[in-house]
Give the backbone structure.
Amino acid sequence: MAPAIASVNPAQVRGNRGGGGAPDGEGKLYAFDEVVLRNRLTALVVDGDRFCRMVEQGLLRAYGVETQAVDNGRAAVELIAAGANFNLIVIDMVLPVLNGLETARQIRAMGVRSKMLGLSARSNERERQAFLAAGVDEFIEKPLDPENLVPILRELDGQ
C-alpha cells in the first residue's frame, strides 16, 4: 500500500489559472487531499516542455504514483509498443515529433485501454473535441492540479 500523503494548509499552495500558464493576479489555492492508494498505480507523462513534465511528474509522485516521462509523442508510442503498461497516460496536445492528437490515436490503435488524460495550455471547445475524438478519456486545461487529478486517481484505484 502506498503511503498516505498528508493534507496541507491550502494557503501554502498557490497555482496559476491564467491563459497559457500566465499568472492571473489572483491564483487558485490548491488543497492537497489525503489520498491512500490501495494499489500500485503507474503513469506516463508525455510533455514536450521540461518544466511542465517535472511539475506533472511531481504531482503524480506526491500521490504515490510511479511515473515515467518522455518529451515527445513518438517516444511515447515506441515505449508502449515495446510493452510498457501504465494505468494513466497524461498527454500534452502540443508535442515535438508527433503531436498529442496523433499520439493518442496511435496508442489507442495499439489496443491500449489505459485512462488517457489530454492536457493543453489553450482550452477551447474545438481542441477539447479533437482530443476526445483522438481517444483521450478526459481533457483538462493546464496546469494539472489536485482538483482534477485526485478523482482520476481514486477511480483508477477502485475507490
User: Anything to note?
Assistant: Residues 1-25 have pLDDT under 50 and may be disordered. The first strand starts at residue 14 and ends at 15. The helical segments are 50-62, 73-81, 100-109, 125-134, 146-156.
